[in-house]
From TrEMBL:
GO terms for molecular function: aminoacyltransferase activity. Belongs to the FemABX family. Keywords: Acyltransferase, Cell shape, Cell wall biogenesis/degradation, Peptidoglycan synthesis, Transferase. Its EC number is 2.3.2.-. The lineage of its organism: unclassified sequences, environmental samples. InterPro entries: Acyl_CoA_acyltransferase (IPR016181), FEMABX (IPR003447), PG_Glycine_Bridge_Synth (IPR050644). GO terms for biological process: cell wall macromolecule biosynthetic process; cell wall organization. It holds the Pfam family FemAB. This is Methicillin resistance protein.
Length: 178
């Protein structure tokens, strides 16, 4: 596909995986959130791509990657948990193009649901920190589906207490050095 000099490509090489991770990293830095180390995504890609359960779509302007999303497929659902974009060419709306291409990709794969992972609870609360990307997702015309929250099932109260203590300390350190 080419539109306004943009090309959408399904990743097939290590370089294309690296393009995805670089855009994810740029977005995390710009939006001030934390992501997993690169080898986490690399392992997902290596293991699940070989089973046709993980794909990456990337929008390029010539050879410059502008936006990239990692998808998982399971049964009849396409899941979009990870993605990123660069800021310099945001007027090209590469993420919008990527969203429509993802929908087409899912349909071509026989998917009947596209789970875009995560939205704010109140769709009218423009002050919610999640409202921006919730609004972006809703523009594709889907239906808001609310799933039950996740919960921890504690088997060892002392170990769980220690884990939470260490995890809280880790987050304080990460926020302090950022």
């Amino acid at each position: 596909l080419q539109k306004k000099g943009l090309t959408v490509k399904l990743a097939e090489s290590q370089k294309e995986f690296d393009d995805f991770y670089n855009l994810l990293s740029q977005t995390a830095s710009r939006q001030k959130y934390y992501i997993h180390p690169k080898d986490y995504y690399q392992k997902l890609w290596d293991l699940l791509n070989s089973k046709d359960m993980c794909q990456i779509l990337t929008v390029y302007l010539n050879t410059t990657p502008l936006a990239s999303w990692m998808f998982f497929t399971y049964e009849k659902t396409l899941y979009y948990p990870y993605g990123g974009s660069e800021d310099k060419h945001k007027n090209m709306f590469a993420s919008n193009l990527l969203g429509w291409e993802a929908i087409k990709f899912g349909k071509d794969k026989g998917m009947d649901t596209f789970d875009m992972w995560g939205a704010c609870d109140d769709l009218n609360d423009t002050k919610d920190p999640w409202w921006g990307f919730t609004n972006f997702k809703l523009k594709f015309g889907g239906t808001y589906v609310e799933y039950i929250d996740s919960y921890d099932f504690v088997l060892n109260k002392e170990a769980y207490k220690m884990f939470n203590l260490a995890n809280n300390l880790r987050w304080k350190i990460l926020k302090a050095i950022r």
